[in-house]
Amino acid sequence: MARQGDMVCRAGSSGRGRSRRATVCGLALTLGFAAGMPAQAAAQEQRTVWDGVYTAEQAARGKAEFDTYCAMCHGENLRGGDEAPPLVGTRFMGRWAFVTANQLYREITTRMPDNDPGSLSAATYLDVVTYILQANKFPAGAEEFAVGPDVPSVLIVEENAPKEIPTGTLVQVVGCLTRSPDSAWVLTNTSDPSRTEDPDASEGDSLKRLATAPLGKETFGLMGIFTPLDANDGHKMEIKGFLIRDPGGRGSRINVVALETVNSSCEQ
């Protein structure tokens, strides 16, 4: 990836089974976007970790499972070790604020335990996530934490923080690439945007995981695309870029810095 001033560019070639990666450039935090893109689809109220998204019983199971499979690296107090990051406190929130608990679940499902990734049951991973939430003093509720295409995502945020990711944040979304009636490129049926620290398009196992990631109900106009994308029309795509909230009625946009085909179809 090359950078020049405020310009961020990403280009590359495809792997097997994917169309070529589109070359895209975004002017970071450019607010002079063109009018006429579609409004953002009405979204459900964003749930956060302060809404009681797991049960105390689920977290108790998670503690037992954490002690068995995770404490040897992350510590009994979840404060990390020589090579394992902390799962509580300021460093944890610095990494995971404005990222969803659903993504935390996917992360540990594919990477943990370190000596045998992906070896535990889905229920065990869900329980461990809820113990991490409990250890960070997020409240329990009446229903167990779950993930799935019909389950709203849960945003990890500080108490009293705004529920929406603010303008200017580098985000990742997955959705369906299409043209609006005025021929502008938009991403429809997107997942909720999540904060990311990596401006590069996903590759390898990370990209494969996105193929099964659930879609959502949001729509984002796409800015800063200077290459033909007709061959990608209708594909399930990953977009990374700078989020621009537009409360003026024209819908939210993403100033694109990386774009990658996840699947050649956009079915759920």
Structural write-up:
There is one protein chain. The protein is α+β, with helices and mostly antiparallel strands and 268 residues long. The chain has helices spanning 56-69, 71-74, 89-96, 101-111, 122-135, 204-211; strands at 2-4, 7-10, 24-27, 47-48, 99-100, 154-156, 170-179, 185-190, 194-195, 218-223, 236-244, 253-263. The strands form three sheets. Strands 7-8-10-12-11 form a five-stranded mixed beta barrel. The radius of gyration is 19 Å and the shape is globular. The two termini are 31 Å apart.
Portion in helices: 10-25%
| General shape | globular
Rounded to the nearest angstrom, the distance between the terminal CA atoms is 31 Å
| Strands in their spatial order, largest beta sheet | 7-8-10-12-11
Rg over CA atoms, rounded to whole Å, is 19 Å
Q: Uncertain spans, ≥5 residues at pLDDT below 50? A: 1-43
Number of helices: 6
Structural class: alpha+beta
Percent of residues in beta strands?
Answer: 15-25%
Please state the average pLDDT score: 81
Number of strands: 12
